[in-house]
Amino acid sequence: MRMRNDDGRPARREAGAGRPERGRTGRPGRRDPIPAVIPACPASVCPATKKCGGCRYIEMPYPEQLRKKQSEMQALFGSLCKVYPIAGMEHPLYYRNKVHAVFGYHKGQIISGIYEENTHHIVPIDRCMIEDQKSDEIIVTIRELLKSFKIRTYDEDTGYGLLRHVLVRRAFATGEIMVVLVTRSPVFPSKNHFVAALRERHPEITTIIQNMNDRDTSMVLGDREHVLYGKGYIEDILCGCRFRISAKSFYQVNPVQAERLYTKALELAGLSGRETVLDAYCGIGTIGIIAANRARQVYGVELNPDAVRDAICNAKINGIRNVRFYQNDATRFMTQMAQNGDTVDVVLMDPPRSGSTEEFIHAVKVVRTKKVIYISCGPDTLARDLKVFRREGYRTEGVWPYDMFPATGHTEVIAELQRENR
Ligand code: SAH
Fold first, then answer.
1. Which of 6, 135, 287, 364 stands 20 to 30 A from 391 (CA)?
2. Spatial separation of the C-alpha atoms in residues 134 and 283, rounded to whole Å
3. DSSP 215-265
4. Predicted structure pTM score
5. Nearest to 347 by CA among 369, 379, 324
6. Contacts with 133 (C-beta within 8 Å, 6 or more apart), sequence order
7. pLDDT of 282-302, one tens digit each?
8. Closest Cα partner for 419 from 360, 359, 373?
């Protein structure tokens, strides 16, 4: 069994994982720069690599990882358009700002880590080569505190126990840290003391949330949450804008690459200040808000209500007035726009790994969109959707791969599409 995040994207082990070295607090690689051409990491740096599988390429030299991803993208998109060189990272380790651990028991000891692929067996992990080191450290502290507070971890077989998962998110630019304790039930004995002890060990934590999940699904987070400390969200800075991020909202896991990706996406959008822009699958509104001062009007659509709430706040925080966010299914929203006879000049879209829909793409044509910038973390579904776009009269001008998930098999891609004049 593999865990999935609330936003439908895979939890950390699929989009990346592994773990080592700890105790540093700077941006990944800041204090201890890794040479641009990093050597292969020996398996010994992370004994869990083989079982965890999150960082499948960790033993492959970084330039080779990039070559492999480049040739995969070439094979997928080469017959359709030009594939530009992949943008790699200067410091491709410890990049993940979001760390998830599942908690359980092994031989009477509390363990935390990741489910081994297709099993309910937990691979114990303390440190990961691609995760934020401070976040890993906090997870280990929580494990130690559970023991001293005699809090039991949840047992899937018996249904007893409290703590199921811990999620730590760190905003690299502001240093704010969110800890989400996912529990089976709302009853959390001595929670105030537990929170105080955790804050004492890690004063850098800025908010702690209890999330209740009593369902037997592969989703990590449940619907209900309760703020135990702090404001209940963290804020990060990306492309000069400030973004509030709630526990259940999607936020790019590699902010260094996300900044480069969004900058390129907006450059390709070529906005003049006169356009009506749709940011589809907008999450907390990042792309639309960054685009707003170069557009006449921006609309954002997003399914997750928490993310929409964040997006609306984010527009305010940044003093942006020409953006409106809607909580809706992107396809339904776009189809309604098409039926209303609305027009959209530029569509910026960033769907989950499962991609978009034929109905959405058809509606893009009906609202007379000239340009589409499609950001994708699922190149296979992007290739599928680009074919649908072609049928609807859109030419793919180029594909720009970004190594958003070093040491894993995943690649993020931007595609630029232009309406054919017909
Ligand atoms: N553009 C944002 C979020 C991209 S992740 C960013 O860069 O941060 C994809 C987003 O699509 C998630 O926020 C997810 O909640 C949302 N989503 C998933 N299915 C959707 C649907 N059918 N309609 C609208 N949004 C959807």
1. 287
2. 25
3. --SSBS--SEEEEEESSSEEEEEETTEEEEEETTS---S-HHHHHHHHHHH
4. 0.90
5. 369
6. 21, 22, 23, 24, 25, 28, 94, 127
7. 999 999 999 999 999 999 999
8. 373
- In the chain, the N- to C-terminal Cα span, in Å, equals 48
What are the two backbone dihedrals, phi and then psi, of residue 118, each rounded to the nearest 5 degrees?
Answer: 60, 25
Host H or E run for residue 268: helix 255-269
The SS3 call for residue 178 is strand
Q: What is the pLDDT of residue 42?
A: 52
Residues designated as active site: 377
Beta carbons within 10 angstroms of residue 157's beta carbon: 6
Q: Is the pLDDT of residue 278 over 70?
A: yes
Cα Rg for the chain, rounded, in angstroms? 22
Of all protein residues, the one whose alpha carbon is nearest to atom 11 of ligand 1 is 281
Q: Which atom of ligand 1 lies closest to the CA of 262?
A: 7
Q: At CA 181, angle to CA 179 and CA 183, rounded to 5?
A: 170
By CB neighbour count within 10 A (0-12 exposed, 13-18 middle, 19+ buried), where does 257 fall?
buried
Residue 377, token pair as written in the block: 């973390």
For residue 136, pLDDT over 90 is answered with: yes
**Per-residue pLDDT reduced to its tens digit, 148-195:** 999 999 988 888 999 999 999 999 999 999 999 999 999 999 999 999
**C-alpha 225: how far from chain center:** 20
State the residue for tokens 């051409």.
37
> Would you say the CB of residue 250 lies under 6 angstroms from ligand 1?
yes
Integer Cα distance of 254 and 97 in angstroms: 6
Question: Which residue's CA is the nearest one to ligand 1's atom 18?
Answer: 352
The 8-class DSSP code of residue 4 comes to B
